[in-house]
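A favour, since you know our structure tokens better than I do. Could you add the entry underneath, on a fresh line?
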Amino acid sequence: MAGGSTAYSLALRAAITLAAFAWISRVVDLGALRAALSGADTGLLSAAIAIFLFIQALSIARWKLLLPAGSALGWGSLGESFCVAAFFNSVLPTTIGGDGMRAYDLIRANGDWRSSIARIFVERLMGLTALAAMAGAAFCLFPPARRDPALGLGLLALCGAAAAFLGLLASRRAVRTFLLPFERGSLIGISEQAGRFQDAILDYRSRLGAVAAAFSLALTIHAGTILVYVLVAAALSIDVPALLLALAVPIALLAAQLPLSLAGWGVREGATILLLKDFGVSPAEALSLSLLCAV
């Protein structure tokens, strides 16, 4: 039964991905797309790649800060785990598939699945909160965005997702529901498992310095991501304000996290087209920008 459900979910996501790209092909001038990609400035693209690689190094450093004290994972193992997770995020049906790989590595190193999964959740919460903070600041600093309902609703969804995730971690009942699949075969009751899981999260109250440093890195990472988009847009000769990208990109990235398509493909590109279309960015330009930054 579980295998059939998984196959059905995979088939549905594949169908949504194909439908999304079918819609994109109808609204995008493919000739203009080819021209934009072929005429890209290689120097600016190289600079974007260099910043992207630096961002990955910062992401590994943030992960190191959030590890339990005395974790057996060193820098080399962390780098390897992060690269494997990034690969699986790109090829698995969901953009969070790599989290499972990192959780596996951490559980194998520490032997405690509760604290290991809690670390994944805390990192995701930090990233989501940093995205919401950046998008909110851009919304306030870019007045034209306030007249665009898609950007306003997208920002509301982003802030709501961060708040809902925080509420999930704070609710003992929600945590118990999440941990139900782990109850089978366990000698520990589900309520005690939920308590230990939340204790692992609350343990960060005694590590506020590490939390503050990790959140600062999260903000820096997302600022770097926006800079990558700015450089790629410049390489493609797309005239788009940096503040607009600072608002639209987090919303598009949130859309890609939804369990709708294969690794977010199609959904991310469609969201980018819709969010930028009222600001003088053609569908072909938006698609070329999204594709280059995604790969």
About this structure: The two ends are 35 Å apart (CA to CA).
